[in-house]
Amino acid sequence: MNVASLKLLWVNVRANGLDGISRVPFERFFSLTEIDPSELDSYESSDQWDAVCFNFDYPSMSGLKLIPEAKARWPSAPILMLTLQNSAELALWALRSRVFDLLVKPPATGEVERMLQRVERAVRARNSQMVRKPQVAAVQLPAETRYRPQEPSATRLQAAIAHVARHYLRPIPESEVALACNMSPSRFCREFRAAFDMTFVEYLASYRMEQAKRLLANPTMPVGDVAVAVGFSDPSYFTRVFKRQEGVAPSEYRAQTIFEAARERAATGS
Question: Do the domain assignments include residue 133?
């Protein structure tokens, strides 16, 4: 197969950071057609793409919803994601949504080459099989996508969201995040609240609680270890914060989660 003949539909979804750098490795291996999301509807399901790549900075709900729509339109084309957001929740969502590969910007040439080899194998397999029908199940979007500012003026605040995802295991002063957003602390606090309808401290606590709830689903992990794993050195303080936000203590939340999972298995007979 001639690698350069592979056709890639490149969809820029509110992506600004590192675009040129991120696109270069792909341009070496694909015949690339670059569009905005508004142009997706102009392409028919009969259009043949060897792969479709969605280029994000920090994915929003509306942006991620484009992926199952594209998968339904081109079920045989591998769906790729390129993003600055590096989180376990996003990776899990991508896996469940049958995203072929997720790369963090800027991708190394070696990563793109390995991905290309997998795409080539998928294209060969597709060409030797019958046309596939869409089989896309609805998957709950990652919780963090609820906290994407919609106003263009708040774009710089996305750096705060990324900073939390990378450093939430340690104390994060507002002054540090304001610097990452190239703002004064007072302006950062004011604009963050206006964009997200919560203070930065409230968002940080909420983010840590989302991570805690995920870890509490593991019945063998002590609550104290969960507290440390999400950035709390004092398990008692973690319990107070968790109860204030979720309405129940961590141990009660775990018991409820395990009970509901058992009930669901019993209902489905699995």
Answer: no
What is the side-by-side order of every strand in the sheet holding 31-35?
A: 31-35, 7-13, 51-56, 79-83, 101-104
- The Cα 190–Cα 41 span in angstroms is 38
3-state secondary structure 76-100: CCCEEEEECCCCHHHHHHHHHCCCC
Q: Which domain holds residue 11?
A: 3-127
With H, G, I as helix, E, B as strand and everything else as coil, classify residue 114: helix
In the chain, the amino acid numbered 174 is E
| Alpha-carbon span 132 to 76, nearest angstrom | 6
Q: Identify whether residues 92 and 190 lie together within a single domain.
A: no
Give the H/E segment covering residue 32: strand 31-35
Instruction: Give pLDDT tens digits for 26-85.
Output: 777 778 888 888 888 888 877 788 889 998 877 878 888 899 888 888 888 899 988 877
Same domain, 97 and 16: yes
Do the beta carbons of residue 226 and residue 232 sit within 8 Å? no
Please check whether residues 114 and 151 belong to one and the same domain. Answer: no
Structural domain count, the chain: 2
Give the separation between CA 107 and CA 124, rounded to whole angstroms: 24
Identify whether residues 98 and 170 lie together within a single domain: no
Check if the beta carbon of residue 82 is closer than 8 Å to that of residue 53. yes
Tell me the per-residue pLDDT of 143-161, one tens digit each, with 9 for 90 and over.
656 655 544 445 678 888 8
